[in-house]
Amino acid sequence: MNNPGITSTIAEPIDFGVYQDTSIFSVLRRKNGWTDDYLQKINDPFHAELKDVEQMTAELERIRLSGEQLVVLPDFDMDGVTSGVLGWAGLNELGFNVHLYVPDYRRGHDISVDAVRELRDQFPHASAIITCDGGINSNEGIEEARRLGLRTLVTDHHVELPPGSAADFAVNPERIVEDYAHPGICGAYVLHQVLVAYAQRYAPHHLGSISLLKLFAGIGTVSDVMPLFFENRQMVRDSLSLARMLHVSIAEDDQNTKYDIENSILMMLLRSKPHHPAFVSAFEGFALMMQAFKEHRKPLLDENGLQLVDPYGKPMFAAGKLRSLADLNEEFYAFYLAPAFNAIRRVEGSMHDAFGVFMAPTTAEKYEHAKNVIDANELRKELSGEYLEKIWTEDQPLADQGVYFTDAPSGMLGLIASHIMRETARPTLVVHRPSNASDPISGSARSPFWFPIITTMTPLGFFAIGHESACGVRLENLAQLGRFAEALEEEAGGIYARMLLSGELEAAESAALVLGPQVDCDAGLTDVDELMDLAKGIDSLAPYGHGFPRPDVEIVVDLARCSIKLLGSDDQHLRIVLPIGMKVLWWNAADRLEELQQLAKSHVPGESIIRLHVRFSINVFRGNESVQAVVERMIDDMRTVDDE
């Protein structure tokens, strides 16, 4: 099972009348408990209306009819950016006099008094603010806004803390008084529900337009790591469908056709209707962001840091991240788009780049902002490596308990904590080293799936806010940090031991499917057609993500029966061809060639057999389909493709 909160019987045979399906894909479904009933349940998008939506939409209609100025006040992470753009575009489309305040990440996620005062200075004629992806617990900032004469509308998805929000109107699936069935929805989705409800009541002719804003709510859903169940699954599917309508498909061998977003289906449709310019601008910005990813070229460097050249003397570059429409999936959102926007605060860049992608007045300016976002992400990768190296080489007195000190920018603490958590496989807190023992300390914590930080640590008297596996931590002084470290080690050790003894940990970490000739394998690697069906079957159940991860597949390979060769323009990749003819590709693993060849020739019984964690995919070449596997790592080897 993928989510303990969803009940289903243990892997039942999938029957079709008197015939039991024994295909490899059916084996995978049975092992995971993916019965027809289970899949139907998690794909049901029905949801009730959030509490107090009616009151908020009535207030919005009053604001629109009066012509009063409304200001969107978003957070600064990817969910905040998509929420802000969704609100700015949608409210303009609905006829509001609306503007957007660009947040300052240096003030933190709370809506601060200083932020509200700055907003009032920028928009002296504003009568109301609507927050998105934040504000539910920012009572000081909200009360300051009210003192300055602003009506306060809060949309958020974070847990409301007692005594509750001071806002005039609040909509949030995690409010104290809320009973929404599936509260794990992102900030952008909350605001989208508000706008849909408004359009249903007061502007039904705009429902189609507001529906298109699912593009941004789906990005927010993936980027904020919301569980991919129920309404979230349909939201992400709809978002990806819209994103693909903004993509321009050009044949790989076509070197003459220029990539022009105006040739995308959705841009042509938007231009053909009388939409508000801000509404069209938001979609144009996303299309240009995809173009920037497609056209971004990273130089290929040799071991000395010099750019490689091809046999004709031309500089060599790595291909862009969006080579084809097939690359445009939920993983693009999670591993490329969201990290790029989140990198801005990590490298202390400008949030005007993030919002400028969607709001700048010209296409050229939007594209420049898009390139700046990608450049910030490249810098983030470089800096994070340097700060991590520093952590590993410096004295870390609390490292054994999962706490690390760094001088990295505040925006990078969560990223560094994630890296360390993956390396150590345990809960991790990264903080700035205080100047004095009495100074307050704040940092970012990350944890494996089995350790809920907030639920575990807050009852012990510590302050942690955010999400269970990714949150901010605040401590009064160095002494309390020491107590936190001790409690973290003790609690994590206890939970880990209990899960280990019960078998829950092994069950959760074992591969969803093992293919090969050995007795512990679920099926053999003997039929290419079955493997093709497996790859297509896995793809058919997308989207994958938090709570419903893409199934881990291991293959057991006897290298003595395979051919192993180098691949690529610079012989940087490996290709292993199995006896059945299927290709196994291992990117950037040329340094493994000699090792694998030696294993293949070994006379020690069983030494030529290896286990690989792979991902199956369908390769299309000149209209012909073939199944292939891409290696993500070798089992019992801590090196991964990304590490290399």
TrEMBL record:
Sequence ranges assigned to domain RecJ OB in this UniProt record: 531-632
Name used for this protein in its record: Single-stranded-DNA-specific exonuclease
Keyword Translocase applies: no
DDH domain ranges (all copies): 71-200
Any Pfam family: RecJ_OB
Swiss-Prot/TrEMBL keywords: Exonuclease, Hydrolase, Nuclease
Family the entry assigns: Belongs to the RecJ family.
Molecular function GO labels: exonuclease activity
UniProt-listed InterPro entries: DDH_dom, DHH_sf, RecJ_OB, SSDNA_exonuclease_RecJ
